[in-house]
Amino acid sequence: MMLDKTKYVIKGCSDADTDKISRPKITYWGDAMRRLKKNPVAMISLVFLVIIILFCIFAPMLSPYKYNDQNYAFLNKKPFGNHWFGTDNLGRDLFVRVWKGGRVSLIIGFVGTAIELLIGVLYGGICGYFGGRVDSLMMRVIEVLSTIPEIIIIMLLLLFMEPSVPTIIIAICITGWVGIARLIRGQVMQLRNSEYVMAAKALGADPFRIILKHLLPNTIGIIIVYMSMDIPAFIFYEAFLSFLGLGVQAPNTSLGSLVFAGQGVMSNFPHVLIYPTAILCLIVLAFNLFGDGLRDALDPNLRQ
Is 8 a member of any domain? Predict the structure, then answer.
């Protein structure tokens, strides 16, 4: 039985609006971006990170001082004149060194996270898709690596290799990919029996094509959130290793090595420690706050 809408009146709407959809269609990513913009803490953190990255890129280039230029007439000076953060024990401009060190720390964070994601996502995708003996064998490798403390592996590797930026990245990535591999494995195991995966199999698609084209793109939300949390973890590990003297070596610098150098003179010249420590803490805090907001925005259970 068909209802004649001319015999009914919709309260609160005009006749011209009765056939309109009350809410426009919105995609998953569009809705995630809308909710992310409504999170002031996440957006402030994002803006702060952009500013920090721009300073790390351009501040050392635009400053009249070089990060390794020494001036013995200004040793351990507090902020004055063009030396906005003061100088260190060799008369080097601390402002330039902080942003140069921030650049190195961010490079380690971004490059290390990219390598870790590449290994972990592919490894976890293969485990979750094939299952069975393949999954059991590959998971044994993950379990063995998980039982070894990560910091011990990093320190042992750095003792036998020359401490440098590539060495630090390799050392952290040896076991760092295990966490994302487990997450991707669990997600792929849930998705591998989906209709579109079975349709791809019926059409004769190669297993690796199914993994790369159909399964992994549907885990992009997990990957993005993990990446936002993993970058500050890399920065923190680098700072910790540099604080132990196993990180970036002179004449190069990083935020961790600046903190290590500043803690030795903190009682007499606290500014040498305060500025790099403050920038390091703010970067890690901003990444974590932005990651929390991103996780909430990408959570499908919070869609309205």
Answer: no
Residue type, 73: A
Task: Give residue 51's pLDDT band: very low, low, confident or very high (50, 70, 90).
Answer: very high
Q: Using CA atoms, how far apart are residues 78 and 270, in angstroms rounded to an integer?
A: 9
User: Which CATH number does the domain housing residue 170 bear?
Assistant: 1.10.3720.10
pTM over 0.85: no
Split into its structural domains, the chain has a count of 1
Q: How many CB atoms lie within 10 A of CB 274?
A: 16
Half-sphere exposure of 202 (CA within 13 A, CB side): 7
Look up residue 265 and give its amino acid: V
CA dihedral 96, 100, 105, 109 (to 10 degrees): 120
**pLDDT digits 0-9 by tens, 160-197:** 777 778 888 888 888 888 888 998 888 888 888 888 88
* DSSP-assigned letter for residue 77: P
- Residues 248-277 have pLDDT tens digits of 777 788 888 888 888 878 788 888 888 888
Euclidean distance between CA atoms 51 and 288, whole angstroms: 16
Q: Does a structural domain hold residue 226?
A: yes
Burial-class residue 297 by CB neighbours within 10 Å (0-12, 13-18, 19+): buried
Q: Identify the CA nearest to 175 among candidates 229, 224, 123, 129.
A: 123
**% of the chain beyond a pLDDT of 70:** 89
179's CB contacts (< 8 A; 6+ apart) are 120, 226
Which domain covers residue 76, as residue numbers?
Answer: 49-302
Can you say whether the dihedral through the CA atoms of 142, 177, 150, 190 is positive or negative?
A: negative
> Tokens 């042992």 identify what position?
156
Of 215 and 163, the one with more pLDDT: 215
Within a domain: 32: no
Residue type, 61: M
